[in-house]
Amino acid sequence: MDTSRPSCSLLILLALYILQLAGCMNAKINFREKEKQILDQILGPGRYDARIRPSGINGTGPAIVNINLFVRSITTISDIKMEYSVQLTFREQWLDERLKFNNLGGRLKYLTLTEANRVWMPDLFFSNEKEGHFHNIIMPNVYIRIFPNGNVLYSIRISLTLSCPMNLKLYPLDKQTCSLRMASYGWTTDDLVFLWKEGDPVQVVKNLHLPRFTLEKFLTDYCNSKTNTGEYSCLKVDLLFKREFSYYLIQIYIPCCMLVIVSWVSFWLDQGAVPARVSLGVTTLLTMATQSSGINASLPPVSYTKAIDVWTGVCLTFVFGALLEFALVNYASRSDMHRENMKKSRREMEAAANMDAASDLLDTDSNTTFAMKPLMRGGVVDSKMRQCEIHMKPPEKNCCRMWMSKFPTRSKRIDVISRITFPLVFALFNLAYWSTYLFRDEDEEK
User: What is the pTM of this model?
Assistant: First the structure.
């Protein structure tokens, strides 16, 4: 008897434990069944109509829909198409008192749906959208949560391509503001109002990296629009992008400077090296023209002048000026050669005349008295010239003239002046260009 009692008590305890586990399992199954019953109850036929919008606060006024966004990525920002692509998680939250249910003492936090057509949805659309699609891999990235007090949370992941009108006057030293606009399509503000969710309505992923831009900041605002059919609620997000200048400095500005400097090499070549100077000028001119056309090919054809157009245009002008400088040098060289030939022929004529005069002096014929008269006449003229030279003072020479006197030919002087003038003017242009556009950019930002 005594040994059987402990075994019976153990069996009783084991049976009670099994019954308790079965009760818990039955309770869990009944809990899920309760969720189904609640969904059938609040969304059953004849009890809920998704075509009717929910009432506003206290059963009157427009329905209030709170919006918040999570920007997952910004893939491309196209200058030529003036658009950008963004992937975001879009959330809407509103109150529909028809969806209230019993939370079973706090055990039901919310009910989840994946079919948006089962409940009323705001007719929101993206007004500046060009293309867009939902994500359905592996399952549709969408859910609807219904809370016990009737609050509805709608969340979906979407990818959008949105238009972004750009002002490229300061390109590539510019900043662009791209907007994301959301508005109601059919409900006016008397029936539906969109509001930003309080406390950080827009969130951006921390490791956001763009190839040629930096997202400086973003601002939320309202953009309600009035038409002939009424006023419609609208929200917008302004994304301020700053263009990364280092890429353009390496790919455009430095190569253009190098081409301009290479074109100045012709000023140091000999004037007679015609093939070398011509080939250098033509090559740099064609390279600069190709560079300019390549830059414009990646930009839309706009009616105004961009900052990069000013830069490439001036650089092209300097390269073309270096080629024209050689043409001027070549013309001056031929002119100097012609002048030198004229002087040489004049000296030969004077030498021949002196030789004739000397032969006349050495002539011992009967014309001695007549031969002396030109000498006397020449002596009188020479004495008068010496008196004029005494009264005339020599002109004072300044440093510039003294330095230029070292180069006897005009063609050499043109080369020497170009060696100084071209770099000096290009340096002044750089000073004016960078100060103008950088300070203009700062003023626009303020």
Answer: 0.73
* Nearest CA among 87, 80, 89, 140 for reference residue 298: 80
* pLDDT of 339: 67
The Cα 142–Cα 340 span in angstroms is: 92
Q: At 275, give phi and psi (nearest 5°).
A: -60, -40
Tens digit of each residue's pLDDT (9 = 90 or more) over 185-219: 999 999 999 999 998 899 999 888 888 899 999 99
Packing angle of the helix pair 410-445, 307-361 (nearest 10 deg): 160
- Which residues pair with residue 226 across a beta bridge? 231
**Percent of all residues in the chain with a pLDDT value above 70, rounded to a whole number:** 78
Q: Has residue 15 got a pLDDT over 80? A: no
Distances (CA, A) of 431 to 246, 263, 436, 438: 19, 20, 8, 11
Does residue 129 have a pLDDT over 90?
yes
pLDDT in tens, 225-262: 998 989 999 999 999 999 999 989 999 999 999 999 99
Query: What are phi and psi for residue 87, nearest 5 degrees?
Result: -120, 130
Cα 214 to Cα 66, 205, 224, 239, 246, distances in angstroms:
29, 13, 29, 10, 12
